């Protein structure tokens, strides 16, 4: 979805290096998320943010940190990359649930960043 | 979080209707049943969401029985481009986290 962009799209790095993955969105959404996907598996939630001042850990936050610089920007950092962090990383955004509770908000995903840690 | 169970994989042929069933025995009152589609090396994409009975949109239909302990995603007349992984999720209006599971890998043959 062109409304959610991720940079870089591909990155190869070495063990111990610090890496930052960036996500920007033009959908005007309050909520942003970082997921990790290992080959053949589903997505695992790393961190999520419901607004600039609200950041929460997901299922697998160890080894990762995030920064919500603005409503439209949400960055994921690997302070000291290790090989088992090699994966596909997705950023997603969503708006607040619709009024009246009729359904839940929909998440829109970016194109992904393929990270390889050697 | 309530868990969902789906078949690991399914095979079909072009033009056939495909039904993927998801079990969610511990679904909560506030949970909505939501399906996403994911193509290789792309992020998941929302397909359909429902709470009870039947929901239909331009892409699929979602059938939910009265007890809501399962749901069935129906894809009419699939094509090769429907080959993808389909995820069934339970989402509530508070939705503090999203758990995708492994999904169902649908392979459509010519």
Mean of pLDDT of chain A: 90
The helical percent of chain A reads under 10%
Q: Termini separation of chain A (Å)? A: 29 Å
Beta-strand portion of chain B reads over 45%
Shape of chain A: globular
Count the beta strands of chain B.
9
With helices defined by DSSP (H or I, 4 residues minimum), what is the helix count of chain A?
Answer: 0
Number of distinct helices of chain B: 0
What general outline of chain B do the C-alpha atoms trace? globular
Low-confidence stretches of chain A: none
Radius of gyration of chain A: 14 Å
Number of strands of chain A: 11
Strand numbers in spatial order across the main sheet of chain B: 1-9-8-3-4
Q: Which oligomeric state applies?
A: heterodimer
Describe the structure.
The complex is a heterodimer of chains A (118) and B (110). In chain A, strands 2, 4, 5, 6, 9, 10 and 11 form a seven-stranded mixed β-sheet that branches. In chain A, strands 1-3-8-7 form a four-stranded antiparallel β-sheet, with no helix packed on it. In chain A, strand 7 and strand 8 form a beta hairpin. Chain A is an all-beta fold. Helices cover 0% and strands 53% of the residues of chain A. Chain B has 110 residues and is an all-beta fold. The N and C termini of chain B lie far apart (38 Å). The mean pLDDT of chain B is 90. The interface between A and B is medium-sized, with 30 and 23 residues.
């Amino acid at each position: 979805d062109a409304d959610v962009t991720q940079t870089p799209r591909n990155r190869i790095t070495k063990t111990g290096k610090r890496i930052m993955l960036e996500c920007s969105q033009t959908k005007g959404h309050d909520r942003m998320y970082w997921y990790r996907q290992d080959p053949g598996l589903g997505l695992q939630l790393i961190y999520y943010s419901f607004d600039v001042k609200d950041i929460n850990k997901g299922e697998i936050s160890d080894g990762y940190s995030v920064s919500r610089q603005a409503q439209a920007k949400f960055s994921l950092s690997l302070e000291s990359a290790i090989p088992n962090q090699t994966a596909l990383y997705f950023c997603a955004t969503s708006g607040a649930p619709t009024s009246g509770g009729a359904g839940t908000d929909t998440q829109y995903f970016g194109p992904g960043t393929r990270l390889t840690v050697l | 979080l309530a868990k969902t169970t789906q078949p690991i994989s399914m095979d079909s042929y072009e033009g056939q209707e495909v039904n993927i069933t998801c079990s969610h025995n511990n679904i909560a009152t506030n949970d909505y049943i939501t399906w996403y589609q994911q193509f290789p090396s792309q992020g998941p994409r929302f397909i359909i969401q429902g709470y009870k009975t039947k929901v239909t949109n331009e892409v699929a239909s979602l059938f939910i029985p009265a007890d809501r302990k399962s749901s069935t995603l129906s894809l009419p007349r699939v094509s090769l481009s429907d080959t993808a992984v389909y995820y069934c999720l339970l989402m509530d209006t508070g939705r503090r986290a999203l758990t995708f599971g492994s999904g169902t890998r649908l392979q459509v043959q010519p």
